[in-house]
Amino acid sequence: MHFSSKTNYAFTLVELLVVIAIIGLLASVTVVAVNGARAKARDAKRHTDIKALQTALQQYYEDNGQYPLSGGSVRLDDWSASSDSSWNVLQTALAPYMARLPTDPTQVPYGTSTWAGAGAHLYSYYSGDMFAPCGDRQWYQLVYFLEIPKGPDPGGKACKNGVTVFRYGGTGANTAIKTLTYFNK
């Protein structure tokens, strides 16, 4: 008779399940961290886009003495929104100052969202004579949406001495909607 001293080494089913569970947990933590980093990157791009748009608007003002009319019409309450064709009208006005107007990184296709929609991600611009005492097109408002609410909505008055405050993001400590108002006079 011959006895072998060889021993079989193998993983038990329980050990395999524990290893799979640990790998699954690590993968889910990684996905959450990556998604958070992506949202922060998109929000950073939004801030950069708005700054670039503000620069182009200021250059337009310096050459024309007023900001471009929003909405592409003479209606008092027309906004230009990156989710519809009114953005093309603003693009035409700002073409000498900006090759292409930015759009939100997660924006839905044209015509499927409005700037006031819940969860809408787009850029909106207004300048007109809705508040004539302020000076026709001597001011503008930009509204944009963040994925990660951070800081209050700065808001702004339609006129430097005006009473009406526009704060589309509300008055909370951390808001996702940001309203920027700029006056030139």
Automatic annotation (TrEMBL):
Keywords assigned by UniProt, alphabetized: Membrane, Methylation, Transmembrane, Transmembrane helix
GO biological process terms held by the UniProt record: protein secretion by the type II secretion system
Matching NCBIfam families: IV_pilin_GFxxxE
Gene3D superfamilies to which the protein is assigned, alphabetical: Glycoprotein, Type 4 Pilin (3.30.700.10)
Membrane topology reported for the UniProt record: Single-pass membrane protein
Subcellular location: Membrane
Transmembrane segments: 16-37
Source organism (scientific name): Candidatus Doudnabacteria bacterium RIFCSPHIGHO2_02_FULL_46_11
Signal peptide location: none
Source superkingdom: Bacteria
Protein name: Type II secretion system protein GspG C-terminal domain-containing protein
Lineage: Bacteria, Candidatus Doudnaibacteriota
Domain Type II secretion system protein GspG C-terminal: 36-112
InterPro entries reported for this sequence: Bac_GSPG_pilin (IPR000983), N_methyl_site (IPR012902), Pilin-like (IPR045584), T2SS_protein-GspG_C (IPR013545)
Cellular component GO terms, alphabetical: membrane; type II protein secretion system complex
Entries under PANTHER family matching the protein: GENERAL SECRETION PATHWAY PROTEIN G (PTHR30093), TYPE II SECRETION SYSTEM CORE PROTEIN G (PTHR30093:SF44)
Any single Pfam family the record assigns to this protein: N_methyl
